[in-house]
Amino acid sequence: MTTRIVAIGGTVNPGSSTEQALRLAAAAAGADGAKVQVFGGSYLATLPHYGSEAHRKGDGSELVEAVRQADGLLIAAPGYHGTISGLVKNALDFLEDLSKDERPYLDGRAVGLIATAFGDQATMSTLITMRAIVHALRGWPTPMGATIRTYHGLFSPDGECLDDRARMQLELVGGQVLRGARAFAGAADRP
């Protein structure tokens, strides 16, 4: 059985450090056999504000259905003013559509978290906020959460992470979400 991982995150800027970090962690999970689907910044930017007048039935259905079928998630958010961006928070608000499922919200899913920012304080407060959100959605954050200080030159033009510490964190989060997802799937198969 293939393990399905959904990766959500990024910014409105194409090629953002946040999305590059997300893709690196997703690649680590994919290299170990997971089927990974990425919802990056360009997709997230098309979502209307959840529950607003602009929100129509079916908006975000690709994201919601992917998460519904997922065994695990990766979520990456930039630290904006000490918390997650509105773009990523809005995407997570769409998971309200899972509230009445047999497995509501993120129940029984491992969730790897990545926070990016120019400063250490912002990465930590963003990571703590994301952990609180995942707990509220009944998900299981992985033991490792990546806090990535961004700077010019962190990623090469082709997306390679040039910082050993950052790359190690991202690969570890990608590997842990896959192991966690597999563990939950194995536990569900037991009587």
Task: Please characterize this protein's 3D structure.
There is one protein chain. The mean pLDDT is 94. Strands 1, 2, 3, 4, 5, 6 and 7 form a 7-stranded mixed β-sheet that branches. The chain has helices spanning 17-31, 41-44, 61-69, 86-93, 120-136, 164-189, and strands at 4-9, 35-39, 72-80, 83-84, 110-117, 140-141, 146-149. Strand 3 (72-80) and strand 4 form a beta hairpin. Helix 1 (17-31) packs across helix 6 (164-189). Helix content is 41%, strand content 19%. The chain is an alpha/beta fold and 191 residues long. It starts with a strand and ends with a helix. It has one domain: Rossmann fold, CATH 3.40.50.360. The protein has 6 helices and 7 strands; from the N terminus they run βαβααββαβαββα.
Which key phrases capture this entry?
alpha/beta, Rossmann fold, 191 residues, seven-stranded mixed β-sheet
Concise account of the structure shown:
The protein is α/β, with parallel strands linked by helices and 191 residues long.
Number of domains: 1
Number of strands: 7
Percent strand equals 15-25%
CATH class, anyone? Alpha Beta
**Level of helix content?**
40-55%
Distance between the termini: 18 Å
From the spread of the alpha carbons, the general shape counts as globular
The fold-level CATH name is Rossmann fold
Please identify the structural class as seen in this structure. alpha/beta
